[in-house]
Amino acid sequence: MVFDNATLKLKVDPLILGALEEDITSEDVSTNSVMPTAKLGEVDLICKEDGILCGTQVFARVFTLLDEQTEITFYKEDGDSIKKGELIAKLRGDIRVLLSGERTALNYMQRMSGVATYTKAVADLLAGTKTTLLDTRKTTPNNRIFEKYAVRVGGGKNHRYNLSDGVLLKDNHIGAAGGVKEAIQMAKAYAPFVRKIEVEVETFQMVKEAVEAGADIIMLDNMTHDEIKEAMTFIDGRAEVEVSGNVTKENIAILTDLGVDYISSGALTHSAPILDLSLKNLHEV
Question: Of 15, 22, 26, 186, which sits most exposed with the smallest number of CB within 10 A?
Fold first, then answer.
């Protein structure tokens, strides 16, 4: 699972360059103070806690955008389990580049590895069920491409990428349209026929209206276990079913017996802690 060259150049490089510009507005004063000229050096990427590795391409790209001569040798790849104290990679290049790129590269990898690690823990709780774990659009601005990639590395799947990617009629869309039936009818009339229509519902009456109006996917939002069971019985395969609303690693287990098609969780991206990684042992060679 990797970013292809076109995606790197068109979508990823501009974001990384923006992050580097945020960190280096004119120069790296600290580095230039102690390293006024180029010297070849090496540094180790060390894991400081157990988890799932993610973001190797992005990590490497930070340094090669600063200097394409930088060499990075990885001993692990995205999706691998890593252990505290383990050597993940060695970097070799201009010491000034290794120092200036360090924080930006680690920020990306720690965040992506944290999302992948949390997602893996949640996905493992759904193992053996028919339910697919999905993310949401609750991502860090300008980091969605990285965080949704990390969800896939951790064993989850991506819901729609953005507002152009699919029809999801939420409570305020329904309010604007005047009701569930009206919202679905308007979406069917407007959206291309190849688009599925998903609608978010909060009550059993809304479930009935969504089924009768021909929704393709019905999202049961913040319903109790019993309410979901009642809704599932009524839907009876006439639409796919997604469950959402404050789903976390701590409570997802109570939903595993329901047989729903999808469970979506914003926590995969908005609440995953970073995975602690560090560059250590920098030395001249």
Answer: 26
22 flagged as catalytic? no
Sorted by sequence, the CB contacts under 8 Å of residue 53 that are 6+ apart come out as: 47, 76, 77, 78, 79, 80, 81, 82, 88, 113, 116
* Active-site annotation holds for 138: yes
Average pLDDT over residues 12-41: 97
Residue of 94, 102, 198, 200 with catalytic role: 200
Identify the three-state secondary structure at position 175. helix
257 has catalytic annotation? no
* Tally of domains in the chain: 2
pLDDT value at position 2?
A: 81
User: How much is the pLDDT for 193?
Assistant: 81
Catalytic-role residue among 147, 221, 242, 249: 221
Instruction: For residue 88, give its domain range.
Output: 5-122+273-284
What pTM value is reported for the model? 0.95
